[in-house]
Fold each of these.
Amino acid sequence: MSAIQKQDQKIYEAIEREKKRQAEGIELIPSENYTSEAVMEACGSILTNKYSEGYPGKRYYGGQENIDTIENLAIDRAKQLFGAEHVNVQPYSGSPANTAIYFALLEFGDTVMGLKLEHGGHITHGLPIAFSGKAYNFVQYEVDLETGRIDMDKVRKLALESKPKMIVAGYTAYPRDIEWKRFKEIADEVGAITMADISHTAGLIATGVLESPVPYFDVVMTTTHKTLRGPRGAIILCKEKFAKDIDRAVFPGLQGGPHENAIAGKAVAFHEAMRPEFKEYAEQIKKNAHHLAEELKKHDFKLISDGTDTHLMLVDLTNKNVTGKQAQEALDTVGITLNKNTIPGEPRSPFDPSGIRLGTPAVTTRGMKESEMEKIADWINKVISNIEDTDLHKQIKEEVKEMCLKFPVPGIKI
Ligand code: DSN
């Protein structure tokens, strides 16, 4: 950081403060993680200087010999990691990847099925005010309000009624296993394309900790920065028969020059994810999430679907007489970061919803295990049960910091 320090003090200081925040606090936002130093080196490398519109072997600018090597490595590693027929590693992030998939395989106005946002879906899965919801006729399915789970019979009924051209499965706030095979059977019944968004669970899927949709689904996409622990970005995996359409939709359909520094970071992360220790990491994410869920339940927190099969959980705070926003803000003051979240059937506004969403990918990267999950649940309970007790919050902030400093964050030396 010495160059930034010399020439841009304001940015330098903000980054230093962010380092301290990341090191001294507990990160529970389930879509965040800490990349390795190797991933950060690739992202911060001289590769950021290069333009490389096109694909390996077919570029529009010169000087591509090293870029092609890097992008081909990213593609080959992703294919191996997920057992995919074809991979595009150029999407800038999850939303552009999803938009590219729709652009490749649908016509504007086509009917698509996706899970409603407040039930755990993503804005790109058909939110009416988003591009997906405006450009396509999204028919939204929901989770069962009693069980918090997707009822596959209801999905089938909706598919038979609405005859979608595509069915989207895979979510951002759904704590349970997804029945990929059943989705595929329903899609086949109505002749729909299957699209899986595994952004949240890709690291668990790549390691076999959760079942993969890749053998069943036509197209699968994932961001690379969540449980997969790579740089910010996304990839699209698909069956060979969709390869040309997907590639054309990413470039030149939607994007210009790919970010080859991020693609190098993806390649490094895929290499890391193929190591045996990454499987152990993914298994521990799930164990930690399960343990944290059970501990929260002991403190009378109501979990949507009563638990988790994955890395994340969704908590309805209604019985605690605290809103999601109040909880998020109070927990922020003690150094515990999570996000306020709508719950299925949300009666409140998305800016101040009834729930919180939390997960274990980041704390597991630091080496925290079940005993730390017990402490975290205890602190969350104390803060939420004493939402205005700022003296208690100050004391917990010190306890949080003391524990965190025993678990270093990759790339941060405090
Ligand atoms: N923002 C991501 C998440 O937090 O789940 C989804 O895009």
Amino acid sequence: MNFSIRLTVNGVRHDVELDDPRVTLLDLLRERLDLTGTKKGCDRGQCGACTVLVDGRRVNSCLALAVSHDGADVVTIEGVSRGDQLHPVQAAFIAHDGFQCGFCTPGQIMSAIGLIQEAQTGDDPERIREAMSGNLCRCGAYAGITEAVLEARQSLASSNQRRSA
Ligand code: FES
Ligand code: FES
């Protein structure tokens, strides 16, 4: 039996036929849509390398069944920059050395973008660390990651203020 689903990924609509209801959103993104920026670390919800935004919320795509997300709006790391202009979170990760090998970085960045949109942490580094705790980094770049999230949060807040002034 085949399942038809429609997803919007990074603003582009995709009609996808699945021949297995167990296909995860992660495998669909990587293997069907060639969006390999989203990484498969553990494939069991423990590392956060596969984090994407689904309808604006952070999701471990290795735990998400694609068939359950018919009609969803998905954003992956490939969809956050505007042409050559990096997303403020991407720029802050570079500025603060928020990575070493880079394997966890797409998931960290998507999680940070979701966290900033959730607006729950304020400028408290401890709360940011806690809110990012589902994203593991084998290289231990946590100090830079926290600084990057803090800076990006502040720069996005000031550009929102300028826009609404
Ligand atoms: Fe999904 Fe590790 S690959 S949480
Ligand atoms: Fe290497 Fe995080 S930068 S795992």
